[in-house]
């Protein structure tokens, strides 16, 4: 018989109470499992692969050297290369800088990254001569938005 307006024979309340207790216990157990899994993940280093980033940057370095060997560089060549160069410097290099600054690279990858940085530093005159963006080898400081600054003044 269905319960109406709070009238029942007492069995409904007992069953509901048992379900609530079981649900709370399961929730607490799930929460503890998630905490344990998160702690285990923190202990394991992330598997970071930088092969694609290094390959892309190396290709751009080689293309830059080839461009530098040319007697004359047309505006079209300069423009086309500057797009690819900017993409590499805006995406690939900052990712490597981030991984390195956080200590996430293994010893071999850290050496590869440092060698890449050394090579880019050696090319700074050529980069300047062609009129390209210079690489940045450190992470930028977080900026504060003007909106946040304006709200604090009020």
Describe the SSE topology:
Layout: H1 11-43, H2 51-69, H3 75-101, H4 107-122, H5 124-130, H6 146-153
Helix pairs in contact: 2-3, 2-4
Concise synopsis of the structure shown:
The protein has 154 residues and is mainly alpha-helical. The protein has helices at 11-43, 51-69, 75-101, 107-122, 124-130, 146-153. It is 71% helix and 0% strand.
- Label the overall shape: elongated
| Beta-strand fraction estimate | under 5%
In DSSP terms (H or I, runs of 4 or more residues), the helix count works out at 6
- Topology, number of strands: 0
Low-confidence stretches: 1-5
Structural class: mainly alpha
User: For the CA atoms, what is the radius of gyration?
Assistant: 29 Å
Can you give the mean pLDDT? 80
Order of helices and strands: HHHHHH
Query: What summary fits the major beta sheet?
Result: none
Distance between the termini: 63 Å
Number of domains: 2
- Helix share bin: over 70%
Could you please describe the fold and organization of this structure?
The chain has two domains: 12-40; 51-130. It is 71% helix and 0% strand. The chain is built from six helices and no strands. Helix 2 runs antiparallel to helix 3 (75-101) and helix 2 runs parallel beside helix 4. The longest helix has 33 residues, at 11-43. Mean pLDDT is 80; it is low at 1-5.
Name its key features.
single chain, 154 residues, mainly alpha, 71% helix, 0% strand
